Amino acid sequence: MLYQYIHNHQDGHVPSTNNLKTKFLITGNHLNTKNMKSKILSLLAFLTLTAVVLNGCKSKDDNPDYSALALGTWVNTQINSAPVLTDDAFIMELLSDHTELYAIGFQLDETSKIWKENSNYTYTVVNDLIIIDGVDIFDIEYHMEFKIITLNQETLIFSIPAFSIDGVEIPNPNIFTCNRVTDDFSTEFTDVWYGKCTSDNTADTAFHYWEYFADGTYNYYYQDEDEKWIKKSDNEGRYFLYGDLFVSNYSNDLISGGTGLAYECWNFNITGNTMIWNGLRENNITVTYQMDKVASPPETR
Asked: What's the pTM value of the predicted model, to 2 decimals?
């Protein structure tokens, strides 16, 4: 319409009043359109900037700081989504100085095994890889790369794309799940306990005393054939706590008659003055002990 008005005016026609009104109306509409376009452009610019900011925030959320999240103590609970035998669990503690404490049971020889902690490892976190190098208690060199699948405040799940012992690559196709240790039960645990195995068909039917000290040592008491209480002198007792996982080193198993060193791992729960141990053993058998907190150990001869 505006272009038609200009064409008519160039031809010498005098615009009528109605045409003039049309001109001003259309010109006003044109100005309103320009203002609207300006507002739309401003709105689009604002929305674009908002999208950039939100995408930036989303990128940060999608790429968490694994180096900070990995710090802490982790207990292995599953391999390939299946629960591990309690005695086969391992512990790793990733410290802020990039050292790693690693704890696991070692078979020393045919008759002896022992639980050991070892901090001769260092680690770095590179993107989604936790890279660990060090030597075990036998001075064997390890190189490990853990590829993070899930890592949050509760859970670490990883695969192992690279694993070598003394420079020899060993494939490991398994997926490992670890739970973060968040609780310290040392105060509740350190005391004297009296109880027995409560599992069906157990060979251990007698009552026992366990006396746990704050320095990680303990005494073990049993009754002899005359029902006299004996404090086991060659116990070599040492225990470890990792949240609700309890590990006990001992020697000369009285129940099985075996000799040498041994260890056992137990999940435990303390409610009031009662503690329960549970351990998943071979053939999917769960062994349970129940004990009560008592004032003192027994009198011994």
From this structure: 0.78
Q: How far is CA 287 from CA 87, 146, 181, 251, 254, in A?
A: 12, 32, 23, 20, 17
What is the reported pLDDT for 2? 31
- From 3.30.9.10, 2.40.128.20, 3.40.50.2000, 3.40.50.10160, which CATH number describes the 66-180 domain? 2.40.128.20
What does the pLDDT look like over 277-288, one tens digit per residue?
Answer: 999 999 999 999
pLDDT at 203: 87
- How many other β-carbons are positioned within 10 Å of the β-carbon of residue 178? 22
E strands present in 80-140: 82-83, 91-94, 99-107, 113-126, 129-135
Q: Where are the domains of the chain?
A: 2-62, 66-180, 186-294
Residue type, 293: K
